[in-house]
Amino acid sequence: MSSLPPLSPEQLVKPRHFELRMGLIFFTLFVPLGIHLPYFPLWLQANGFDAEQIAVVLAAPMFLRVVTTPLLTALADRASDRAHVYVALMAASLALSAGYFLTPSYAMVLAVSLALTVAWTPHSPIADSLALSGVRRFGSNYANMRKWGSISYLCANLAGGFILSATGAQAVPVIIFVAFGAALVVALIAPRLGRPRRASPLSAADIQHSAPKLLNGYFLYFSIGVGVITASHAFLYGFVSIYWKSIGIGDSVVGLLWGWGVLAEIGMFMIFTRVFGSFSVVSIMVMAGIGAIVRWIAFPLIWPLGLGVGGFFAVQTLHGVSVALVLIGLQKMIGETVAEERTGAAQGIAYSSNGFFTAVVTLLSGPLYDRFGVDGFFAMIPIALVGLVLIGLAARSAPQRRIGR
């Protein structure tokens, strides 16, 4: 691959209010997800879908985006500006989400979900790619920008729970549609950074030496390990809201439980640089994997042991470890080892890894929940362990040099 030229003089100028604009992008980006993840399964159940149908509707789009997301993120890398691709995909997502207003038959919901995932899934990797360009070019702090996504996700969890407690689950498609509309408006102010460029005047030989191809052992083991640890959360994402409702927990409390986990995630974003900034990405990911294992051991025991809703709040605190550390650790790895002109492709590969393994586990989660109920969480433990083994293999093939700003 031929190296791209250094940053142009215009690209060395930091866009006005870059961090604020990226913070707004992340804030609006995560509102639809903050409604979809906890409450979409409840909407499916309210429309008569059984556990296996819910698993298919949730998993099938994940398999599709494994193929489509890397293609679209690579397209964004080649576009005149990644922000233009982001705006176009957000507009497409708004239009496609209106499909949920149609009669919610199994075939219709599955078709809309498949179409929507093509446009929706690249939002996060493209936004991450823009943010990482700011980190490289201008020294921006990724965690300080990305935390606003977690804050909005928290707000969506809480607001969604209270709205649904008043209106019922049929409001879910309306909230998602409105959220995409707000995200499209904010997308119009996304910072324009031009095409990705390398941020230092290295020679072509230096770039090739310091920025190895993405298909190397370290990047692949690490990305797959991240994907497998993330996939161990599939049972939680697909069925925990349904489980909580089945034991008599109301919509508003379900929203609070989801929100508490995200609050822990925000807390991790706020303290990460100060507490964990000097840790290696492998160490960070090992902590995340251990946090996930502890969650899956604890979840099925809380209600039988009489720990009540307070016990669920306690175990949801580990969201700050098993999820936030994965998010930050992945971006830290890409920032340290991938050249800027490859960050879009790197984000796409990593997101596809997450999507593929999460899709597989989500598909298995329907029968698991049907047969074992909450005890299905125990099946997530060996999955997280496999992820930790892969992270260990990544550590053995880690590169000796990092990419600087």
Brief overview:
The chain has 405 residues and is mainly alpha-helical. The chain has helices spanning 18-29, 31-46, 51-78, 82-97, 106-120, 123-138, 142-167, 172-187, 204-210, 217-231, 234-246, 251-276, 281-302, 308-316, 319-322, 324-337, 343-372, 380-396. The chain contains 18 helices and no strands.
Mean pLDDT: 85
Q: Could you tell me the number of beta strands?
A: 0
Given the structure, what is the number of helices?
18
Distance between the termini: 20 Å
Task: Tell me the major beta sheet.
Answer: none
Low-confidence stretches: 199-212
- Main structural class: mainly alpha
Radius of gyration, in Å, reads 20 Å
Given the C-alpha coordinates, what overall shape results?
A: globular
Oligomer: single chain
Helix-strand string: HHHHHHHHHHHHHHHHHH
Query: How helix-rich are the residues, as a percent range?
Result: over 70%
Instruction: Indicate the proportion of strand residues.
Output: under 5%
What does this structure look like?
With 405 residues, this protein is mainly α. The protein has 18 helices and no strands. Helix 2 (31-46) runs parallel beside helix 7. The longest helix is centred in the C-terminal third of the chain and has 30 residues, at 343-372. The model is unreliable at 199-212 (pLDDT under 50). The chain crosses the membrane at residues 20-42, 54-76, 83-102, 108-127, 148-165, 171-190, 218-240, 252-272, 279-299, 305-328, 349-369, 375-395.
Secondary-structure map:
Blueprint (H helix, E strand, L loop, with lengths): L17 H12 L1 H16 L4 H28 L3 H16 L8 H15 L2 H16 L3 H26 L4 H16 L16 H7 L6 H15 L2 H13 L4 H26 L4 H22 L5 H9 L2 H4 L1 H14 L5 H30 L7 H17 L9
